[in-house]
UniProtKB/TrEMBL annotation:
Matching Pfam families: MatE
Chain segments annotated as transmembrane: 20-39, 51-84, 96-119, 139-159, 171-191, 197-218, 238-262, 274-297, 318-337, 357-378, 390-412, 418-440
Name of the molecule in the record: Multidrug export protein MepA
Family membership noted in the UniProt record: Belongs to the multi antimicrobial extrusion (MATE) (TC 2.A.66.1) family. MepA subfamily.
GO MF, any single term: antiporter activity
An example Gene Ontology biological process: response to antibiotic
Topological category with respect to the lipid bilayer: Multi-pass membrane protein
Record carries keyword Lipid biosynthesis: no
Length: 457
């Protein structure tokens, strides 16, 4: 019998049990990350006010870019280190760890300094007005100073997860959020530091997480740990890291571009509070999307292993269960957002005008939300079987080909509601495209007699 931590169980253990075993830790990690962002918005909304929420929403594209340059190194390094660990090559995995650390520090310092220098023009380009610019500047001014800390924490946490410590990686995320929940209200409500206090609480909590992660890699009992003489940048490792991290990097850059267009469109048609409303809507949509992303992270090793082993019935069953679970998650989000929008928005603000705009936006944006879970699962399915080009196409086309044209056309005729309506329209088209893509792929496999023809029971 295969041990519980042996990869052999991926081809033998019941799919349902495997999905629970692999997805739950990832879902917890993703949920924690989303809560991290929601907590900041809630504290800022009640401690700073409606313009504080709007100022925070202005920073979303910049925060997406921060994440983009972080995952460019962190995701690539985690993937390569995991491969080397599978090959029992701990020496190369150790070099990857040190290269990732050096690259994260360099990226963090350079991104932080360059962005700080041009911060005001960047924020104005992102949709800031004279009223919201001070809030956005105060928040990002602090956050950018802590960019190296953010990068080292997130990047090395990915390495820790990939080298055999998923629970410790989950604990570091939980610990960071817990620290933020304690520190943020003290800085905002007690010390009256406003939006700067929220940003400072974020950096301090991430510092706590970084110390935890660094302690892990300083421990010589860890599979991979810091070693003297390994702090040498190697061209081959750097190229491999960047090539693998390019896909999530581009996705985050595109997401940043989309948010810039949304912010500027909302500023033109609805003003600062409309941008603040999007900040609330975005947090809620992202929360459920991140849960589905956690599900797909758990699906990836199951699908990849069985696809490689040509056990296509198990691949189909995993995909089927994943789609059902993904749709259930986003449908639950749809029901909550459609039935209790006022209660949800009230968590973030007490401003009546902002509440009305955000409530309308939440209801419109989630009209097609149930199918979003299916689209995300299918997109990640192609990545899991090594067809990353299809996965990137499905993901980027939703943002570049479908969403951006809608954002440029619909608001002209519908105003602010046109911005909100662009999201479900793009989701609908992306869902149809994903269904067509998976149908064509399965048909091709069936012609080669790789997939069984009868449906999985």
């Amino acid at each position: 019998m295969a041990k519980s931590n042996s990869p052999l169980i991926l081809g033998t253990r019941p799919i349902g049990k495997l999905l629970l075993q692999y997805s739950i830790p990832a879902i917890i990690g993703m949920t924690v990350t989303s809560l991290y962002n929601i907590i900041d918005s809630v504290f800022i909304g009640h401690g700073v006010g409606a313009l504080g929420i709007a100022g925070l929403a202005i920073t979303f594209p910049l925060m997406n870019l921060i994440v983009a340059f972080c995952v460019l190194v962190g995701v690539g390094g985690a993937t390569i280190s995991s491969i080397y660990m599978g090959q029992k090559d701990t020496q190369r995995a150790t070099y990857v760890l040190h290269n990732v650390l050096l690259m994260l520090i360099f990226n963090g310092i350079m991104f932080g300094l360059v962005t700080l220098y041009f911060l005001d023009p960047i924020l104005l380009f992102f949709g800031a007005s004279a009223e919201t610019l001070p809030y956005a500047r105060d928040f990002m001014g602090v956050l950018l100073l802590g960019t190296p800390i953010t990068y080292v924490f997130i990047g090395l946490n990915n390495i820790m997860r990939a080298t055999g410590y998923p629970k410790k990686a989950m604990i570091s995320a939980l610990f960071t959020v817990g620290a933020n929940i304690i520190i943020a209200p003290i800085f905002i409500f007690v010390l009256k530091w406003g939006i700067k206090g929220a940003a400072l609480a974020t950096i301090i909590s991430q510092t706590c997480g970084m110390i935890w992660v660094l302690h892990h890699f300083l421990d010589k009992n860890s599979f991979i740990h810091f070693q003297k003489g390994a702090y040498v940048l190697k061209k081959r490792i750097i190229v491999s890291i960047l090539s693998i991290g390019l896909s999530p990097f581009l996705m985050n850059v595109c997401a940043s571009g989309v948010v810039i267009i949304i912010n500027n469109s909302l500023l033109s048609h609805g003003g600062d509070l409309a941008i603040g409303a999007y900040g609330i809507v975005n947090r809620m949509l992202t929360f459920f999307v991140m849960i589905v992303m956690g599900l797909t992270q758990g699906m990836q090793p199951i699908i990849g292993y069985n696809y490689g082993a040509e056990q296509y019935d198990r691949v189909k069953q995993t995909l089927r269960y994943g789609i059902i679970a993904g749709v259930c998650i986003t449908t639950f989000g749809f029901i909550l957002d459609e039935i209790f929008p006022h209660a949800i928005v009230a968590m973030f603000t007490t401003n009546d005008e902002l509440t009305d705009i955000a409530t309308t936006g939440l209801r419109i944006c989630t009209i097609m939300f149930p199918v979003v879970g299916c689209q995300i699962v299918i997109t990640n399915f192609f990545q899991s079987i090594g067809k990353s080009q299809i996965s990137i196409l499905l993901s980027l086309s939703r943002q570049l080909v479908f969403l951006i044209p809608c954002l440029l056309i619909l608001p002209i005729h519908l105003g602010t509601n046109g911005v909100w309506a662009s999201i479900p329209v793009a989701d609908s088209i992306a869902f149809i495209m994903a269904i067509i893509a998976i149908w064509i792929h399965i048909k091709k496999i069936q012609k080669k007699n790789s997939f069984v023809h009868e449906p999985v029971q």
